[in-house]
Structures are given as C-alpha cells and as structure tokens.
Amino acid sequence: MNKPKKVQESITIFGAGLVGSLLSIFLARKGYSVKIYERRADPRKQKMQGNRSINLALSKRGWRALQEVDIADLVKPIAVPMKGRMMHDTKGNLTFQSYGTENQAIYSVSRAELNKIMITEADRLPNTKFYFEHDCKAVNLWDFSYQIEHQNQVFSENSDIILGADGAFSAVRNAIQRTDRFNYSQFYLEHGYKELTMPPKTDGAFKMSPDALHIWPRRKFMLIALPNPDHTFTVTLFLPFEGEISFESLQTKKAVKTFFETYFADAVELLGNPVEQFFANPTGSMVTVRCSPWTFQNRVGLVGDAAHAIVPFYGQGMNAGFEDCRVLNDILTEYNGDWTEIMPKYQRSRTENANAISELALTNFIEMRDKVADEKFLLRKKIEAHLHQLFPEKWIPLYSMVTFSHIPYAEALQKGKRQEQIMNQVLAMSNIEQTWKTLDFQEIVNRL
Ligand SMILES: Cc1cc2nc3c(=O)[nH]c(=O)nc-3n(C[C@H](O)[C@H](O)[C@H](O)COP(=O)(O)OP(=O)(O)OC[C@H]3O[C@@H](n4cnc5c(N)ncnc54)[C@H](O)[C@@H]3O)c2cc1C
C-alpha cells in the first residue's frame, strides 16, 4: 500500500534547455511548485540565429518521455523520419543502409522548435514559473540556497529540492564537485564540429532524399546531414582541431575550397557556398563528462548533460536526458514523493547506464566516420539483420537496442559486446562473403 501523501516540496530547476523544460512538465504534473531559472533569453521571443536551424535525432527513448507528458503529438509535425544512413563516397556514389526494420526510423527535429514546444507546454501549467536571463552563479550546499544574477543584480533564495539541468558546464554540479568523495572526469574530443546549411532547390524541394541521415565518411573526419521540415538540411562537419587536415590547417578560402572539392565534391554543389559558411559559422567542441554521485543529501540532483555530457555520435545525449526525466518520474510515483528514497534510487538506476551510452557514443564515432564505408562492416550488418529477422527476441543489433528499444544502455552495451565477439568469429570464417546465407543461424544464436 502507498504511504500517505506528504506535503510537497518546492523545486527549483536550473536550465530550461531540452531536459530542464521537459523535467518541469513531469514535476508540475505531479503537483510540485516548480521554478525554472534559465540563463538565456526566452527562446519563444528569439529569432532563428542567422537563418540556421540546428537539429538533432530523436529516437524511441525520447519519444516515450514526450508521450508520457502528452506532448509527442505536438512534436510529430516538426519531426522528419530518417529510416537509415545514406553513405556518399568520394565519387558521389550513394549506398543506403536501413537503421532497423521497415517501420523503424529516427527523427530529425529542430532543437529550438522542440525547446519552444516544451517551454510553452510547461508554462501553461499553473504551478510552473520560468525566469529567463537569470544566471545561477552559485549553489550553497550547506543551506540549499543559491545566488542568481539578473540584470546585473544578484539575489539569493533557497529551495527544498534543487535540480541541475544546466548542461555540460553545470553550476549545480560545480557545487557538488567541491564535496568529499565526488568523482569527476572531463574529456574533450580532438575533433570539433561546424554546422552548415544546405538550402532547398529553387522549386523548394529537398536537394537530397529526406528519409535518411546522410554521411560522407572519410576516416579521420566526416560530414553528416539531417533534413529539416523547411526542406533544408543541417550539415555538420566533424574534423580534428589540429593536424594535417584540420580546422587549424584550413585557414584560407582556397584551402577550404580545395578541401571540400577533394573530399565532398557532391556536397559542394548542393551546399552552394560551403566556403562562406565555413568562415561565418562557429566551431564547436565536444566534451564527455562523467561524475558520481549525481545527488547530494537527497535534496540536490543532476539530470541530462549536467550529469552525463556525451559526444553526439549515437544521437543519444538528449534521448538519455529525456529518459532521466521519465525514470525519475517513475521513481517519484513508486516512492510517493519521498525524496530520501527517490534520490538514491534515481542515481543507482541511471549512473551505469549513462556511463554505458557515453562509451557507446565514443565508439560509434569510429563506426560512422570509418567502418560504414567498409565491405566487411556492411556484411556484418547484413548477417545481423538476418539473425534479427529469424530471432527477433534473441538477437537484436546493438544499434537497435540503443535506438529502438528501452533496454537499459548498460545491458545493451554488454549484450552488444557478446554479439560482436560472435560476429568476429563468424566473419573470420573463410569465404564468408559467398557462404553466409548457408550458416547455421540457430547455432550462432545458441552461442549467446
Ligand atoms: C553537435 C551536436 C549534435 C547533437 N545531436 C544529438 C542528437 O542527434 N540526438 C540527441 O539525443 N542528442 C544530441 N546531442 C546532445 C544534446 O544536444 C544534449 O544531450 C542536450 O542538449 C542536453 O540537454 P540539457 O538540457 O541537459 O543541456 P543543454 O541543452 O545544454 O541545456 C542546458 C540549459 O541550461 C542553461 N544554463 C546553463 N548554465 C546555467 C546557469 N548557470 N544558470 C541558468 N541556466 C543555465 C543553458 O543556457 C541551457 O539552456 C547533440 C549535441 C551536439 C553538440
């Protein structure tokens, strides 16, 4: 039997980004009074930056969280389904690889539009209050107070529960970081990224097929493109910061032009002005942050990138953050609002999964930029797809476990490693390219 309902605590969330805004809906729907402080201006009042639409891939875990707060239907109209990868080789030849079965897709959504939808829906609820252009300067863990700067004035407040959804460089985490036995690591990738835009054709149509995530894998670097509802593509170049071919070495218009023409000739034509965009748009870095514990004295907690910033190559950072919110909500229900039970359970259930997706995201970078162009890799995918077709419950390709299921990331990683070992044995068999269809697939599955 459930415990009697307690008086509900006041909750403060820092960060009204993707995760903070969703979390505020979950908590407000549970009846809590939620204040949300966001450093940036209200995105609903902002114009799109330089006409650039930055998008991300939303997959099953993210959709589930959106469904649970009844906003999935509002997001569907801005979501473009991508059913697989479209590889572009240096000669412009295209190869399509499905991500999963016929009905499975990941969805390209605009980061800004998604954020606006969630803030609008959260703001409709009577017990949420958003404060934009309010920067959390410090969190004091001894009395659960915090300092906020707004229009050059600093004021102090406190709250029963403080949740940090303030991203990879979280002020809330920064406070916990100074406590005893806090583990923390931060690791920057040697690659940076730059976003470019591919405009539509003059008649307004997409320039490439919109139902795929396009990849130009070039081993040490790559270009990817995701479609937008306005028929543009957001194109992202991932390139080392330093080295022979790098952001550092591409200093002149001539060097950038030659670089694009050499490695991405078909994209140059479609982008129109990659050189101008290359110099006009900023270069971003990518960081992996791991830490534990995610909570402090059952009154302070971390969610989303504040707890686990990961590199973007599995398209799971936001999805994992949304899953944090959904799981936290389930635990709130299970323990009937008792935070002394909720915080430890939340942390226990999420940390190893966050570490797993962090590892998977780093290894998927190698797969995307390098292996997807490899014949043996394509054969591996083909055999795995066949095994999945024959034994849908037993053999689920790692990508599908991560993207199209709710199997905890840590379990997916472990199962994926076992499947990889088996596939390595299969692919080492002589003449496998010709004989794979005659394999004893039951025997392969029995090795699991
Ligand atoms: C290039 C790239 C591509 C990506 N693609 C994908 C993808 O395809 N799929 C996917 O699932 N994920 C993707 N991600 C990851 C995804 O962007 C993040 O996981 C997600 O944005 C995390 O959301 P968040 O709300 O935790 O943090 P953020 O989005 O960083 O939001 C944090 C918010 O907190 C605010 N804030 C920060 N400090 C303070 C402060 N002191 N006081 C008040 N407010 C503060 C910030 O202004 C911000 O609004 C990608 C990331 C990158 C870099």
Can you give keywords for this protein?
single chain; alpha/beta; 19 strands; 3 domains; 448 residues; 6-stranded mixed β-sheet; 7-stranded mixed β-sheet; binds flavin-adenine dinucleotide; 16 helices; FAD/NAD(P)-binding domain
Structural class: alpha/beta
Separation of the first and last Cα atoms: 40 Å
The dominant shape is globular
Q: How many H/I helices?
A: 16
Strand content: 15-25%
Going by CATH, the architecture of the largest domain would be 3-Layer(bba) Sandwich
Helix content: 25-40%
How much is the radius of gyration in Å? 23 Å
Average residue-wise pLDDT: 95
Strand order of the largest sheet: 6-5-14-15-16-13-17
Bound molecules: flavin-adenine dinucleotide
Ranges where pLDDT stays below 50 over 5 or more residues in a row are none
Q: Could you give me the name of the CATH homologous superfamily of the largest domain?
A: FAD/NAD(P)-binding domain
Number of strands: 19
Query: Describe the biggest sheet?
Result: 7 strands, mixed
List the helices and strands and how they pair.
Layout: E1 10-14, H1 18-29, E2 33-38, E3 55-58, H2 60-68, H3 72-75, E4 80-82, E5 84-88, E6 94-98, E7 106-110, H4 111-124, E8 128-132, E9 135-140, E10 145-150, E11 153-158, E12 161-164, H5 171-177, E13 183-198, E14 212-217, E15 222-227, E16 233-240, H6 253-263, H7 265-271, H8 274-280, E17 283-292, E18 295-296, E19 300-302, H9 305-308, H10 317-334, H11 339-369, H12 375-390, H13 398-403, H14 409-427, H15 432-435, H16 441-446
Parallel strand pairs: 1-2, 1-12, 2-8, 5-14, 12-19
Antiparallel strand pairs: 3-7, 4-7, 5-6, 9-10, 10-11, 13-16, 13-17, 14-15, 15-16, 18-19
Helix pairs in contact: 1-4, 1-10, 2-10, 6-7, 6-8, 10-11, 11-14
The structure holds flavin-adenine dinucleotide.
